[in-house]
Write a structure and sequence with these properties.
Blueprint lengths: L1 H16 L5 H82 L5 H61 L2 H6 L3
Helix pairs in contact: 1-2, 2-3
């Protein structure tokens, strides 16, 4: 940016030194210096905007990852508590069945064994469902974080493309390359 301003100053100084030349030459020199300065300022502004856009995209992706990690921890805690609740309920049901069998004198019966087996099987099934739900919730959180990273990359490529477009336009675009208007 400093070099561009120095070039503008030099061009303007050269235009003033050429004061002995025709007024049209001075005007042309001033126009060229102004155009050069405008292009430099425009390019610097576009570069700064691109850098800021990339930085913000990176911060958004980091925040998305942190949110996914926190959500994953929260889901793990919920699942742990749900598993403990299932085990607690299974113990209560088993104790209740054993107490009934003891009160009725059937503590050695196959009915007691079947009832306890059913409680254990149901508890295992419930815990399996809790684990599956937790795994799905974690996957959803991780996919959200992956999405944020992909959006960050897209933002970076879009910003760089915009910078290239601005530079191409500032340098005259196709007219400069092909010499046509």
């Amino acid at each position: 940016m400093g070099e561009a301003l120095a070039a503008i100053g030099y061009a303007l100084g050269s235009a003033q030194a050429a004061a002995g030349a025709s007024g049209a030459a001075v005007t042309a020199a001033n126009t060229a210096a102004t155009t050069l300065g405008g292009t430099a300022v425009s390019g610097a502004t576009a570069a700064a905007g691109t850098a800021a856009n990339i930085q913000q995209g990176h911060q958004a992706a980091k925040a998305g990852q942190k949110a996914a990690d926190l959500q994953s921890g929260q889901e793990e805690l919920k699942a742990r508590n749900a598993r403990l609740k299932q085990l607690r309920q299974a113990r209560i049901k088993s104790a209740s069945i054993e107490a009934m069998a003891g009160n009725t004198g059937t503590s050695q019966s196959s009915g007691l064994a079947g009832g306890l087996s059913h409680v254990g099987s149901q508890t295992a099934s419930n815990i399996s469902n809790i684990n599956t739900g937790m795994s799905i919730a974690k996957d959803i959180g991780h996919q959200g974080a992956r999405s944020a990273r992909a959006q960050e990359q897209g933002s970076i490529f879009g910003a760089v493309g915009g910078l290239g477009k601005q530079a191409f336009s500032d340098l005259g675009g196709f007219e400069t390359i092909f010499g046509r208007r």
